[in-house]
Model the fold of this input.
Amino acid sequence: DAGVIQSPRHEVTEMGQEVTLRCKPISGHNSLFWYRQTMMRGLELLIYFNNNVPIDDSGMPEDRFSAKMPNASFSTLKIQPSEPRDSAVYFCASRSGAGANVLTFGAGSRLTVL
Amino acid sequence: AQKITQTQPGMFVQEKEAVTLDCTYDTSDQSYGLFWYKQPSSGEMIFLIYQGSYDEQNATEGRYSLNFQKARKSANLVISASQLGDSAMYFCAMREPTEGSARQLTFGSGTQLTVLP
Done:
């Protein structure tokens, strides 16, 4: 299995631009999580999906952030418009159902907003 | 309130020695899970070990063991026979039951471990 695949690995953009981060979970996993990691705030859960349905988006910082999961094999996290304080590493993670515990993380997408 | 506390921002250990990374947690639930993840400088998050709250035995995975003390709400990670490749950031995390079927992980602030040759 290829694991959780995230793209792009690195993104540098200018303030005000739209950013789209992508994630392909492990096949068969039915829960998907987006985390953000910064030096100041550590790892924060932004949103998670169960069977493609958003369960809790209370961690999404503000309306500039949105996430979708149109099917079981693809999710996006979009920031529009981006701001310098959005600079962080964004992780996607997935987990199988049926009582499974372990989250498998992708390699992360490092976003820099100038 | 902080749910996961890692009090050691940085730790040093001599190669081949054992090291303990501290983690305390706070929950009122009876059913929960505790995890340790490793984040090397390359950035990926690597799962190391899991302990369920009802597990009576301490979890072990190779050179990793979890010293689970339920009454003290601590879940320390012990790495035996440290190797240079163990140098990384280590995160403790807890899963608590939440509404619905999905269960979230809450992470501590991490401990940066450096293994000295």
About this structure: The mean pLDDT of chain B is 91. The interface with chain A takes residues 33, 35, 37, 43-47, 50, 52, 91, 95, 98, 100-110 of chain B (CB under 8 Å). Chain B has no helices and twelve strands. Residues 1 and 26 of chain B are 9 Å apart (CA to CA).
